[in-house]
Structure formats: C-alpha cells, structure tokens
Design a protein that fits this description.
Blueprint: E1 5-10, H1 17-30, E2 35-39, H2 40-46, H3 55-73, E3 78-82, H4 88-97, E4 101-106, H5 110-116, H6 121-124, E5 144-146, H7 152-163
Parallel strand pairs: 1-3, 1-4, 2-3, 4-5
C-alpha cells in the first residue's frame, strides 16, 4: 500500500481538473488505495464563513484546503485536490505541509476552457477569473503535466509518481 500524499491538480477554470480527479480516484480505488477528492468548489461551499473570491478570501480558502489535504495525507490517504490555486505561493504552502506532494498542471489552453465552461464563469465574471481577468501563475516545475482533464497518459504518470519513493 502507498503512503498518503497530496495530488494537487491546478489549471485554469474549466480545464478538466475535476474530471481528472474523478478518473484518478477511480483508478486508485481499483487498486485498493484509499483516496479522497477535495474539489475546491465543493470545499468552499461547506466552509463557515464561506470565503469570498477576493484576494483575502482566496488566501483563506487555499490555506484551509492545503491544511486539510495535508491532514488527510498524514492518515495514509491520497488527497486529490482539484483547485485552481492560481498563485504559486498557495501551491508551495500545500507542498510544505504535505508528507508527499505531487503537483499536476492541467494545461488546457484558455480558448478551450472558455469553449467548454460548464458553469458559465467566463461569461459571467471574466474580471474575477484566473487566466481571464486575474493572473494565473503556471507551475514552475510540476511533477506531471496533463494536456487536458481526460488524458490517460497523465493518469499513468500521476499513478507512477504516487507509487515512487
């Protein structure tokens, strides 16, 4: 059995982070490896008070998410985080807290994210969106680059990174 780790899927909104998280969780489950998906949107909904989308709210959200993921990973579970975390500093905080950390950049191009946009975010609030109106800081050296959220080769690379010691 693999020890716990945080697998942080970062990328623009609508890049496929949640889709990739579900595929990864299914593969880990088939291998009898416990895993939990922490989708940024879902976690935001249960936090009290609910953090806003301004810089202070996002900072609180990602600090909480990083701590929660690290806590889960220390229990021997793979914490799969599907969250934009558009600032490198937030992802580096998560890396510093986790017993093992695997950063995955879901590198779907902005035009494709805008095209698929299932929540209508790019049309509703483009000034507030990372990659559109807010800068998205691309990972400097991610362990895995996934061209899209449904990439089988990326799943294989993530699984290899999880099992590597």
């Amino acid at each position: 059995m693999t020890t716990g780790a945080v697998v942080w899927l970062t990328g623009l909104p609508a890049s496929g982070k949640s889709t990739l998280a579900r595929h990864l969780a299914a593969c880990l489950g088939a291998a009898q490896q416990p895993a939990v998906i922490l989708d940024g949107d879902d976690v935001r909904e249960v936090l009290v008070p609910r953090p806003g989308h301004d810089e202070a709210g996002r900072d609180a959200m990602y600090r909480t998410l990083a701590g929660l993921a690290a806590l889960i990973a220390r229990q021997g579970v793979i914490a799969i985080v599907a969250a934009t975390a558009h600032r490198r500093a937030w992802r580096e905080l998560a890396r510093s807290l986790a017993p093992r950390f695997i950063e995955v950049h879901v590198a779907t191009p902005l035009a494709e994210c805008r095209r698929r946009d299932p929540k209508g975010l790019y049309a509703a609030a483009p000034a507030e969106l990372p990659g559109a109106g807010v800068a998205y800081e691309t990972p400097a050296a991610p362990e895995v680059i996934a061209p899209t959220g449904d990439n089988a080769a990326a799943i294989d690379a993530i699984l290899a990174a999880i099992t590597a010691r």
